[in-house]
Amino acid sequence: MLRILRSYRFLVAAVCFSWGLVFNAQSQFAFEIPQRENARILSYDGIQVSVSGKLALCSHSEKGSIILDVTGGTPPYTFLWNTHETTQNRTNLYAGSYTVEITDSKGLKHIESIVVQPPYPLILNPVEKTDASCGSSADGSAKISVKVGRGEPYRVTWSNGLKDVWEATNLKPGTYTVIVADKYNCDVSVSFQIASKEAGIEVAETISNASCAGKSDGNISLNVNGGVAPYIYKWSNGAQTKDLINVPAGIYEVLIQDQGGCTLQASYRIEEPQSMQVNVQSENPTCSGDNNGWIDLIINGGTAPYTIEWNNGANGKKLENLAAGTYLATITDASGCFVEKQITIAAESALKLDLVETTPQSCGGEPDGSITLKLTGSKGNTSVVWSDGQKDVLQRSNLLAGTYEVTITDESGCEVQGSYTVTQAEAVNARIESALDVNCDQGSVTGHAWVSITGGKEPYTIQWSTGATNIREINYFNAGTVEVIVTDANGCMSKTSTVLDFPSEVNRSGRLDFQYRKLQITSESEVFTDESILFESEIAPEIIAWEWNFGDGKTSSEKDPVHVYENPGIYEVKLTGYDIFGCSAFEVNQVQVTSADAQVVIPNAFTPNGDGLNDFFFPKAKNIESITLEIFNTWGEKLFFTNSQESKGWDGTYRGQLLPPGNYLYKITYIDRDSQLTEKTGGVTLIR
């Protein structure tokens, strides 16, 4: 800190005081006055001095300076320095103490003592730095500090723009300089290098610009080195590949990251040629149907020369002798780029005749048909001439059925023609249809009758014989004849009638019953598994469809079906019948089925002579799960084997050869439904 000591002596209330003045760089003064009881302070407008300049030296080669700003007292002032100088301000001063006596024009004196501080070194500690992790990563840091100096405040300026901070972060690899200045503007600088801990990512690009304006065929191909491969790519358009293929013109940014986490961001531009601009000059044809219009194209941009092809097969930039319509030009420049231009020309007088309405001649034969036309696009006054001599009207009335032609011409000479037919009114036809809506649960019936109308002209007027009007459907609750009269908008009429059926009642009870019995007559009344059961129905005549449910997951639509139960149990059999109205009735009975014991009957002889009788040897088995048949000769040689219940059995042959008559041995093994295994052996006689 720069200290300037000043001594003052004032007379205050007849008491003398003296004090020291401490001056700092901001020219602030602090006075300390001892307190005394009953003291009075008299004010006096004395000389005031503000001192500035270079009051501290940064090096031995520098010289100081003192600048005095004097106020108060009575100007002008005189100055006398202890070095005998008489100027107000001093320059080229060495370090040391300087005293100046200032006298105003009334003789008031003021003495100021000023010290020019000698050089004091400003020395920085070595830079504490951390290198960047990657070649271009901004994660390096540096920290500086003052080793020797006059004290704060210090001003710190970094070459990357930072100010008044002792530590810089987020530094990329490179050379940096820091300048530190003290409060006397003495400064010192230091330079240092931020290196990279890891080799940076390097990239070289090859760019192919878009061939035409708006075309997506630009490419950016990258050659990436450095860092730690493989690399991850993130493009601004969302792509994650190394190269961009077939993209439109524009700016594309890419972030490349290696396996060590180092990144490189780059930006590339794909250019495109200047787009072609097509302006049009044209003239419309005079009338609809005329061929005296033309189109001329004015082309800028792209790369000349241009090739122009039209959708009508013509070439060149100008088309002549054109009718009204839309024309499409394809313009291709020397680079192969093309644009399409669509031009529409319309006739100056585009006469257009539209039919608004024709009314047919009514059914009565009176001349009451009409034609109403609408004309648009005419230029000036028009002439209207009809084929029957009528003129200058677009609406005709009181017409008979027939064809009427009209010719209309405007003042440009453009013409339009039309031909219109007034028809005879079409006959109207009505037909009555009916249906019954049956509520089976309540036993109620509602009849519905409706009229179907064809021909004629809407709207229709409808009159039913029941009194209903202008409705197409009525309800009825009795059998009988109903009549309807339909009249169309032309006054044509159709009258029709029909006879409606209606049932006397809907009855669901007492219409179904059934019994069941064994199909094979036996002395046993029980129903066994695998026996055929005949179900006999008693169905009322009005029942037209039926369905059986035997309770074991099987059904039948036969009237008197035969069913076989495979497993024992009590089954609920349900017979459901349906009448012509879709109403149903049903009858339910229970059938108890008992499991039959296994039965195996083994013949003792067979005659395999091909007469269809007793030609095979096979046991007759019942109520078994599986069976095996083996045949042996008397020496124990096996001649035949089967384990299929569907097998016909042994036919008296061995390896295709007929065996001689005689006795043969059999072995039969079967498993019943209780999983019991039974084996039977014996003899059988082959008779030829």
UniProtKB/TrEMBL annotation:
Residues 521-598 form the PKD domain. InterPro entries: Ig-like_fold, PKD/Chitinase_dom, PKD_dom, PKD_dom_sf, SprB_repeat, T9SS_type_B. Pfam families: CHU_C (PF13585), PKD_4 (PF18911), SprB (PF13573). This is T9SS type B sorting domain-containing protein. It comes from Algoriphagus kandeliae. The lineage of its organism: Bacteria, Pseudomonadati, Bacteroidota, Cytophagia, Cytophagales.
